[in-house]
TrEMBL record:
Gene3D superfamilies given in the database record: Flavin prenyltransferase-like
Pfam family of the protein (one): Flavoprotein
Domain Flavoprotein: 12-53
InterPro entries given in the database record: Flavin_trans-like (IPR036551), Flavoprotein (IPR003382)
One example GO MF annotation: catalytic activity
SUPFAM superfamilies found in the cross-reference section: Homo-oligomeric flavin-containing Cys decarboxylases, HFCD
Name of the molecule in the record: Flavoprotein domain-containing protein
Amino acid sequence: MADHGEILEGVNVLLGVTGGIAAYKAVDLASRLTAAGADVRCVMTRSACKLIRP
């Protein structure tokens, strides 16, 4: 069985984040995807950057 750190190994994820309240959830999502082995890249709107500092 694969270790949790290897489940998404080799998977590329592009995470789009907008300026809604759910932007705060994107931080946790990116962290969980990375912990599972994914390579996560984020694209943020200017509004999202006001809520979350990249």
